[in-house]
């Protein structure tokens, strides 16, 4: 089976990463590439690393240019996917890398995004309980946000196993590509190199309700999340430091056992040997998730740390992984599991 | 008054930063510089940025070489200060930049450092309640650790004002100079650039008991700390993201008021305007502390974030600030309050 | 003597660096600060590192707001200084940190900047032969470009001593702050971290005629320059690798002697001991210039490498140094000679 | 055909990069992995990014452990390959990633490496004239140095076409992984971040004679090289800025034509469209070479700039490419041509 794939939003970071992966996917043929303000330009001028695709000309994002593909990836700004998606037929697999269809609660959407809720699609984080069944054969996929990917994979086993209380505290560091390619002064290299800085403090980040949704589902109860994202001086990567109060009876052994069980069969999740902790450099450019968990008796907390590449597993790699499942292809097809290090 | 100052451990990062500051301090004359394995070498070969002192020759660290100074700074590995200090007379001001005399509890020292406790000296964090009185006229000063400096200044106002519960969760990112100048593979530029990684997870970091000591004193009760340090891809800086459950009745206004009150007269602490958050780049090379606090009703937590330069306010600048107080000099003398940015 | 100084263009990188220096200059009182699109804002929102000046409000750049100062610094985009300067009286010291008055040849200006030439002012690179005499007492100063500062100081001694042929090859690496604070996609942190890239290849960079002007003056003959600037993944610093064919008779000894003679009395130029080479980290945030020269018999070339901080010695520090001379103050007043390292 | 490959020196950067590539090579099965001081350890503790190989145990580097493979890669310190290679039978393909067999001139070897010359093997830079024929079917391959790869590919077309004089000036910036994984103080992250610094100035770098060898072969005459390597604050990548005086008659058109002809059929070399220049970020983790050339009439020089990943095309990727040729496999098999960007 060769599937023909279009990418809407090929000039940005998510679209560029997706093309890096699709270009070597053995069952994918890259079709139309579209852009908004860059329509008409050659891809090589915008994504110089994609040399084999350098001569491709970007087309405008319309129903016509996106027609005739088996799969359409939408790498568009939040709130723009719904209008495009409804013009694509039900037989086309639509993979939305934006936020439009991630949330189940319309009120959450309206509070954090300020527009009408477009709906909810099967959620493209296959490692969550029940996710693969929902993705198999689906024609619509909502790719998770990068922070929710890192945080949900870090904490869902502890919640699913009933090991922690329902108040999670999360501090995550992200590389700058998570903020996109639109030029802004605070994202200049001069500003970010040599600097760590927080943003969206106090639950203001739009990824917060998505984390709560995932962790609450795992816990079977409403989980409260204190989420502080920080911008780190690196292009890629998320390190999520997550913790919650241990429930009575939780031990180092029961924590370890829960994570071993949760990830035993996962092709992309690497639970590190005890005593070793993840580093974002180890997953640079790969679809892997590195995780470690510990129980700290002195503070009474379970601490779980995960590392992902925000553009690969956190966005484009997760999208391809979910596409593979939806199409009935081997889940790992075309996806790197080894990072580019050092 | 001109004081003659010796620096034991002039070849390392703390010693180098101290010399950068002392070289422009209007009341200090730099005397003997000592080192261990680098004794006999010229400073310029080891600290090329200290060009005006390049021809200085490092001497061995002995009672003889350190004699004849008004102030002796000890920038030695942990556990080595006590033996040197006891050879220096009671009339000499000894400023220990190591950990030896920071902790009040001998059991804590033994647990985290594995040797006999040498004692407790006046603690060189002048912004803490009562600290200036203990430092004034003192002949012995224990300079705080870099993480405890950032964390204690972030959280003590909330504890002193009774606004938060006694369980603090802290995730801090540090530049690599905090790990010192001894060559280790995991600190190579190839390893740290582009990477965030945790270490000492689960309360294992030696700075944990020092934080607990400071916060418990402010709270008037034993505070529990979950502390996770992470290594960030930058040479300097600490960003400490601290939070604790708000006590009933705490509000955004009461939190703001507590911090305004705590820092109103502080020359080095800059409480940012509401809504703006610290960045380590803003304090690069300065003795300033930038702080912001917020109350998040959704998670029920008070979140406080501070940024310091680990080598300046976190080590050598804090040492000079405390020296100024001990000697009766203006507290800000010779200390930069503006960072080198961008 | 206390001089009252205004800064036009206080919201950019050059203006910010200037304020960092002026804030601790013992003879300067900071007066009006102006900006263009940021007029009306508080400085703290734009330059968070300048905490002691955070409450200062930026005014528009007009003859009225700039009136009543002893010194006016112009940190404006190229081509805008002349119009402002002509409104300032002849009794005011005007220090232009832009390019408008650097070039002697009007044709060069028109070719590289595309507008009418405004004139030529005394050139603010005091280390060049004859420069101090022209600056002393002057009321107008043209601050050199950052690259010409690094390159001219590296090569003028070899040309002045007649040691090299008249074709210089220069490859320089610059930190990103040299490109300014206006947001552009190719200057985003995501783009520049981990990347070296050239620009303005083939003599297209506007600093080329300024280098030729300086080196030709030293040589007493027209010097040809091949100049390739590259963007390096760091916020600050220039490393200029310069070489030229050795003239017959030039030796390692004669090269060394020429540089020792040229810089023997220079307060800011540090000729490194033989065998050691400059690093930009050693001059971070300082007004120092580190230089080394060598003669390579195998290739027949003299190679000279210099390191500066592009914002300090390369812009704002050089401006203050020249101001000191013009006003009859000690040349080193208020200027750091020790970099912030590591 | 599946070939069984051993890697001697699997704990270092070159060995790690090789394993990243071999792990996804469709015709390679990874056999024995060896190390020196790390023998006995699991690979996961030393190369955490190689998670799928984490449980592999490193064996000592001996004839016995390396026996029974079709291909043996040697990623050993310079001077150690010859002793190992002579114990491997003539039927085994030995790919030496060290310097031992690169140079044709024994005197050059002795001058730069200080030991007896071991011999000369077919040179693994397939893009050079005649190289593929020498590699096809060969059982011994000398993989080029990283700098000679970048520089030779940049300049050989100009020399082969007779467009430039025989004195080349080269300034190259390299990421820190080129200096290896052995911990040294000057390679610490604290030292290299934010800093550009030269080393081996004046022709002292061991890669100089290798460049001269390659360029002289292309020119048909002895070429002189002035080579200055600099260390850049990034883990990977080489940007080589190369130039030489244009011969009379050389024009922008003849330069462009020479490069188009040289690289028209090359699968890994991407000659950029006119006016665009390479960036190391575009080839991060890929086997691609990005090149641009220009003629600068003002200085009379031809300037050519190339970008490679020093560990991929500059070491391990070049090794696999040459292995593919030697074994009669498709040259591009298993090698990425798209970098990980941003």
From TrEMBL, chains A, B, C, D:
EC numbers for this chain: 1.2.1.38
Gene3D superfamilies named among the record's database cross-references: Dihydrodipicolinate Reductase, domain 2, NAD(P)-binding Rossmann-like Domain
CDD domains hit by this protein: AGPR_1_actinobacAGPR_like (cd24148), AGPR_1_C (cd23934)
Molecular function GO labels: N-acetyl-gamma-glutamyl-phosphate reductase activity
Superkingdom assignment: Bacteria
Keyword list, A-Z: Amino-acid biosynthesis, Arginine biosynthesis, Cytoplasm, NADP, Oxidoreductase
Annotated localization: Cytoplasm
Pathway: Amino-acid biosynthesis; L-arginine biosynthesis; N(2)-acetyl-L-ornithine from L-glutamate: step 3/4
InterPro entries from the UniProt entry: AGPR, AGPR_AS, AGPR_dimerisation_dom, AGPR_type-1, NAD(P)-bd_dom_sf, Semialdehyde_DH_NAD-bd
Domain Semialdehyde dehydrogenase NAD-binding, first and last residues per copy: 4-136
Principal location class: cytoplasm
Catalytic residues, chain numbering: 146
Reaction(s) catalysed (UniProt annotation): N-acetyl-L-glutamate 5-semialdehyde + phosphate + NADP(+) = N-acetyl-L-glutamyl 5-phosphate + NADPH + H(+)
Primary role: Catalyzes the NADPH-dependent reduction of N-acetyl-5-glutamyl phosphate to yield N-acetyl-L-glutamate 5-semialdehyde.
HAMAP family: ArgC_type1
Designated name of the protein: N-acetyl-gamma-glutamyl-phosphate reductase
Gene it is expressed from: argC
